Amino acid sequence: MKNRLLHVIFVFSVIAFCAFLFASCGCSHSDKTPIVTVPPTCIDEGYTTQSCRNCEKTITYNIIPATTGTHTVRWIMTDTTWPGISTNKCINCNLAGDGEPRATQVGDRGPASGFICFISADETGFEVAGLTGVNGTFNTYFANFLEAAPSDETSTSISWGPANLSITGATMITASSSSISATDLANSFGKGRRDTRLIFNAFSSLSVTGRAAQLCANKTVVFDGVEYKDWFLPSIGELNELRNRTGLLNILASSAYYWSSTQGSANNAWDMSATGTRSNYTRSYSCRVRAVRAFGSTD
Ligand SMILES: [Zn+2]
Ligand SMILES: [Zn+2]
Asked: What is the pLDDT of residues 176-190, one digit of tens each?
């Protein structure tokens, strides 16, 4: 009961305050500007304001505190034409930081707020194997960049999927853990997106859910008003590049293993540790999952 009384007094006080502001100068404030709402930024409070065109009195109300108190300035990719252009600005409010835009570098933030982890050596780029005629159809295309998602898909490690299952059409490297070759890695590069979709479709038909490839295929990120749904579980070759790039080690959890979308046998798949150890390992083992996307087509 007491709270209700306080509430009534508060509301009445606010109305009286506003009335005072608008009437104390003797002007009837009959010609007011539209109400403008300014959202808070990292360092400035937000507010709502309105002015009288006759006496120029302004009232400001509904003050909202600044969101963080500091800017978070990063190099953010703003042009995806190879070799890319990155602009130094606040990732929250877009305020410009120091430095002119420059060529995109590994470690810059990607279009979907992830991390650029691979840039092709020339504008031709690399081939991303396509998949047509089935669920999740897309055509083969050429890409110049790989972007790793900003964080892992789960806070815990999960298994790759069922054993005793060779997924038709998807890459399989049967080498032992220590003898995977540079050629094997290169051959699996560009296959992750297709293989993720093939795994997704095979698991769906078996009513298997929530596995590494499926988490990536189902992933959606909205950044700067654009929706990104083209994520996939990287192949072992793609995961290898992600891990190798300068400055990228700190985005993968140290001493953790990450799944790739590359099969090792009907019972195994390839994983890789954050320190670069690659293993052809049983699918029931639990690893972390980091989604990537391949973009920046030149055709
Ligand atoms: Zn007025
Ligand atoms: Zn900011």
From this structure: 999 999 999 999 999
What residue ranges do the domains of the chain occupy?
2-64, 73-295
Neighbours of 190 (CB within 10 A): 22
Distance CA 165, CA 178 (A): 23
> Which ligand has the minimum distance to the alpha carbon of residue 89?
2
Task: Quote the CA–CA distance of 217 and 229 in Å, as a whole number.
Answer: 8
Considering the entire predicted model, what is its pTM? 0.81
Which residues lie at CB < 5 A from ion ligand 1?
Answer: 27, 29, 52, 54-55
**Residue range 188-230, pLDDT digits in tens:** 999 999 999 999 999 999 999 999 999 999 999 998 899 999 9
Any idea what DSSP says for residue 285? Answer: S
The secondary element (H helix, E strand) that includes residue 14 is helix 2-23
- Which ligand is located closest to the Cα atom of residue 96? 2
